[in-house]
Design a protein that fits this description.
By secondary structure, the protein is mainly alpha-helical. It has a domain of 48 residues. The chain is built from four helices and two strands; from the N terminus they run H-H-H-H-E-E. Strands 1-2 form a two-stranded antiparallel sheet. The mean pLDDT is 80.
């Protein structure tokens, strides 16, 4: 069900809601996932179809900018990076390309 409800500060703390937040934690998570897979404009369009709730691209942008995302961790060093679809090899300190 979509709509507005009023909760007290005590209720908000127990539910894990941020003050003056317009999106529920579940909708925030869905919005972040939509933005991770496409542009902000496409994510806004998809939110209407998937969630049944129109969320503007600027709202999604602010959501992503304010999110505390963990750093990516990898056990192996990167050997290549892709920028705009082009692959770039990363050289080692010795410059051997390995």
């Amino acid at each position: 069900m979509l709509g507005q409800i009023s909760v007290s500060q005590k209720q908000g703390k127990r539910l894990g809601l941020a003050a003056k937040c317009r999106l529920s934690p579940v909708l925030q998570k869905c919005g972040l996932r939509l933005c991770a897979q496409s542009s902000y404009e496409q994510a806004a369009e998809n939110s209407q179809v998937i969630l049944g709730l129109p969320v503007g691209s600027s709202v999604l942008h602010r959501l992503v900018q304010g999110a505390e995302l963990p750093e990516a961790a990898s056990e192996e060093p990167a050997v290549a990076a892709s920028i705009d679809g082009g692959k770039i090899r990363i050289r080692s300190e010795a410059g051997s390309g390995e």
